[in-house]
Amino acid sequence: MGDTPAAKCRVRGRQLREVSAVDEETSVRHAGWEERFASGNGFREAGSEEMRRLSEAAPCPGHTSCPAHAPFPGHASYSGHAPHPHRALDVGCGLGTYAALLASLGWETLAVDWAESAVAAVRDRYADLEPRLSARRLDFTEPARTLPRGVFGLVTMRLVLAFLPDKAAVGERVRELLAPGGVWLVTTPLAERLPEARRAIGLAAEDVSTFTEGWAEGAWYDLEAGGLRCFVLRKERAAEHPR
Fold it and tell me: How far is residue 206's CA from residue 171's CA, in Å, rounded to a whole number?
């Protein structure tokens, strides 16, 4: 019988071996990234054009002179009711390139990464940006709710989303973290543009459909033809208070 105690034990044993294999593979991969960040190597250098476009997509809070495609939380012309419109969260910060730029633009920026060596590198490299820039270790896939909900005007993920297993769950968590009218900016390779051996580091078309669904506004731009794509997704704004 398939539901005998012996059969259940065999199934349970197989499941434990599968989980153990996944955990071992994850540990090896994490160890590799710890070593990589500790040696000062990131995933892929952000070029000047990428940084320029980021500064346009995330203008300085409260500074109308900064270029922008649209008023973002914290911008002087933004009329939403975000409780902390100047706060930004950089998920999977690596060596801190995005986080440092956001802090220099005026965002109160929290950089998080599961790699301790990445967090240490950010603190060391950008000590001059404290306290506007802070860094801490955090695994975004862990269920514990250790980040405040509904307070961030901006969440960025650079070359991270492809490695997170449940794109829909990630999108929902980001939505929870964002203030009304807040923006999620995702920079990623697309799997279809990569050689077959490297497609795991990019997002497939179905992944894109999954994480872009349900946002009040959305747009994308390519950093170069056939290169990285940036998605800019905005959460719905708070309803205007009746007078």
Answer: 14
Average pLDDT along the chain, 243 residues, taken 10 residues at a time: 56 43 42 64 79 88 43 35 71 96 95 96 96 95 84 96 95 95 96 95 96 96 92 87 45
Listing from the earlier edge strand, what are the strands of the sheet with 152-158?
133-137, 108-113, 87-91, 152-158, 178-188, 229-234, 217-222
Whole-model pTM: value is 0.77
Domain ranges of the chain: 1-39, 44-234
CATH architecture of the domain 44-234 equals 3-Layer(aba) Sandwich (3.40)
Residue 169's SS3 state is helix
d(CA 93, CA 36): 14
Q: Which two tokens stand for residue 206?
A: 């179905």
Structure tokens at 142: 């862990």
Contact yes or no for 34/20 (Cβ under 8 A): no
Beta strand extents in 75-201 (DSSP E only): 87-91, 108-113, 133-137, 152-158, 178-188
Within 138-180, where are the H helices? 167-177
Helix axes 97-105, 48-57, angle to 10 degrees: 50
Residue 190's SS3 state is: strand
